Amino acid sequence: RLLKKAQSAQIAPHLITQMQPHPQYPDQRLFVADVQESVRLVTYNPGSLSFHVAVDDTVPRYLTSMCVLSDGDTVALGDKFGNLGVVRVPANVAQSLDADMSGARLQYERPRFGKTHKWDTLCAYHIGDIPSTISACSLVIGARQVLLYTTLLGSVQVAVPFVSKGDLEFFRALEMAMRKLWKPVSGRVHLAFRSAIEPVKGVVDGDLCETFFKLDYDAREKISDLVDRTQQDIFKKLEDMRAMFAF
């Protein structure tokens, strides 16, 4: 039989769906996903054999998948309503945890509102399908890491991080131009769809940007004028983004 060392009923109030250890401190920090209360960062104090919830979420996410990134402070999430998000431990909380590994210091450094510190939401995006798995990986040896996720309906999708500010500004401008001039067959407003559950944040819709290839010449010329680039420049940017991550 296994010997019970510690137990806590406050880690996940409903049902634990996933648990992943911290990549740098697997014996003292744990990421726990609840079926209804999003993900929580839990610290373990070996001296008192106790658990402490250091960080939790303000949004009641019904998680189906999660992936802890290599820095140990960032988590990619997917919920059953078709949302993909990225949250991160606040900088002051990360400094306190580095100073006191047990997390006891955070018990006396509570925020002004609430009992625990809250995640900083970096990205929020509605994909329209339930993410079943999320993993951070490189598609080929030597390429940059991407977020590879699969969905319940069988699609395999990739979230690519922007490295340069110039690329980010270009694709944001292209996305805005596509929203103005390209209308989906369903008639839905693109921004409203991507913000179906919570407002979209920190994400550029790559599927919408690549629809530029399917437009006729006149429509592409109008979008090129809005972006202040030639059609060849836009084609090259889209192809370079694919080649950079080898897919």
How would you concisely characterize the structure shown here?
This protein has 247 residues and is an alpha+beta fold. The chain is 25% helix and 28% strand.
Explained architecture:
There is one protein chain. It contains 6 helices and 12 strands. With 247 residues, the protein is α+β, with helices and mostly antiparallel strands. The strands form 3 sheets. It has a 5-stranded mixed beta sheet with strand order 1-2-3-4-8, with no helix packed on it. A 4-stranded antiparallel beta sheet has the order 5-6-7-9, with no helix packed on it. A 3-stranded antiparallel beta sheet has the order 10-11-12, with no helix packed on it. α2 (165-181) packs across α5. The chain is elongated and about 70 Å long. The mean pLDDT is 87.
SSE order and pairing:
Blueprint (H helix, E strand, L loop, with lengths): L15 E6 L7 E6 L4 E7 L4 E7 L6 E6 L5 E6 L3 E6 L2 H9 L17 E2 L1 E7 L4 E7 L8 E6 L4 E4 L5 H17 L8 H5 L11 H5 L6 H11 L3 H14 L3
Parallel strand pairs: 4-8
Antiparallel strand pairs: 1-2, 2-3, 3-4, 5-6, 6-7, 7-9, 10-11, 11-12
Helix pairs in contact: 2-5
Key phrases:
alpha+beta; 5-stranded mixed beta sheet; 12 strands
Q: Tell me the quaternary state.
A: single chain
Unreliable stretches (pLDDT < 50, length at least 5) are none
Number of helices: 6
Structural class label: alpha+beta
Main beta sheet: strand number and arrangement?
5 strands, mixed
Name the strands of the widest sheet in spatial order: 1-2-3-4-8
Q: How far apart are the first and last residues' alpha carbons, in Å?
A: 48 Å
Strands, total number? 12
The helix-strand sequence is: EEEEEEEHEEEEEHHHHH
Strand content: 25-35%
Proportion in helices = 10-25%
Question: What integer is the average pLDDT?
Answer: 87
